[in-house]
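Bumping with the actual sequence this time:
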Amino acid sequence: MTSEAPKTETKPKPNSATLAFRQLGAAAKANDRSEQFAAIARMIKDSQGRQPSVVVVGEMNRGKSTLINAILGAPGTSPVGPTETTGLSVSYVPESENFPFGQAELEYASEPRLRRIPAEELPQWVRIDSPTLLDAEEPPLQASRAVKKSPLGRVTIVDTPGSGGLSEAYVMRAIARAQDASVLLMVTDAAGRITKPALEFLVHCSTMVESVVLAVTKIDLYRGHWQAVLEENRQVLAARDPRLANIPIIPVSGAWGERAAAEPDEARRRKLYGSSNVHELIRALRAPLERGSKLPTLNALRQGIAMLEKPLIQLETEREALGGIVEKHDNLLAVRDHREKLLRTFEDSKYDWNAQVDRVRVELTAANARLSREFGAHWKDRLQKYGAGISEKQSVALMNEMAADIEVQVGRALRGIVQRGTSLLSELYAAAGMDPQQGLLQEVERRALEADAGPRGGLDRGTASIDPRMMVSGVLMGSGIGGMLTAITSVVFMPVIGVAVMGSFSIILARRQAKRQSVMQTANDATIELRETLDRAVRGVLGVVSTDARKVFDRDLRQSVTDAKTELARLESAKRASESERERRLAQIDPKIEQIESAMAAAHDEILRLTDRASAPGP
């Protein structure tokens, strides 16, 4: 009897991208860039665990929810119906320890913002015709549901509302929250070619996402001519925008796919699933998701290369001063530029710091005012189209879309404010030949986010008072009509009937008008809040630049002068060095240069590999 030796677990070998990144780290440590490299490593760590998303959009009754159920392989997960169904955006999130299967989560504007419910209760909060949703004192803004892992992997699928038509706000909010690769899945059906509103929506939104896939659904209902519709859609897309000429267009039957997932018979299930073509849609969605998953690694490698450029130039500058040779022409030019910058006198730099800050403040304040006006005008025009007022269902849909729009506009504007603030810092530092510290740039972003972190009461969804004049006019109109009918028919009760009918109609119309007026008032309040939030962000960001950064800049400037003088002294010393001293110093410099160049080359090769350009033919 022989006993087997205990098996030892072996760690998986790191992939080539990890090895290249470690090379960059070793070169950074050898050249006093450990802190900068640690910041890049943190970026990689922060990106881990983020789930990419597929944002599903489409006009009402195109089969979005059925298709989502087919992709998830979970019939009935997303509520379906013959008319408009979803009243708010729902994210289907792969289950986790913190969000287990069988749980759902509602998001509100007020605290507590996130509230857990059993998954089976979610439809009553999602369906636009649900009394629970319509009668809620504070309806949720959007919802999430934990689902089993789908064939797409750990990917969040976002179902945007069918009620109210296509909405850019829902799409942009989903993309902004994903923080990772997002794919826009446009759903149309095989009844006919893509409609003009859907086409224009697709053209516009395609500029905001990396990838677009078009699903032509209900091929089970239009077996005779879905192929012609597919080809016509391809021609329409290519004619409207060349960027859409080659996007994947997948014919699919969500109904067959959903039925396949519920079918207990293995053979029949395989046949239904194959006929549904859901597997082809999943393949088309996976490709851009896999590309997007490489972005954090690509960004880290690119930043690592950029981080080593300055120490490489410094070493080659010193090598040239020691009589060594700078082999690459581009490097030689960089060495000369570096030397010229060092020879400039930092103390002679003059800065009108406050004037620069004031100029940017005026610029950003004007941009905030313009954005607020555009937001208010958009919603005013939108609501004025409802001349007969709006129903309770329409109110819920419009208010949810407005909440999404506010979030998108605030997020977009805050990113612009942060970008302009960091750009201003970079401009002020660049004038002295320096780069701003990472901590300052992070503080700029923190102050901007802080402006939007205050308590927000949410959108007031109450109904304005009913205008009594409308009710009186209805009663008078009913009485008049009844009197006319009495004269014609001699029925004495006609005025009473007329008053009852027209009075009831007037009450309904008055309620619709009151609801419309309430939503318009909410839009006005939201416009004011939008402007105030953005102006707070500007004050916070420019406060960092005008106070904190000014102090740090003065300290950095003195240090930069000292460093420049030290390096110039070292270069002058190198020129006067003896032959033996030059050989000794070159023997120290050359391995460092070789290490940096080797690390940068390995990272560059990985970038080419990850972007599939390593074997691409030359021009």
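The tokens above came from a reply further down the thread. The chain has 19 helices and nine strands.
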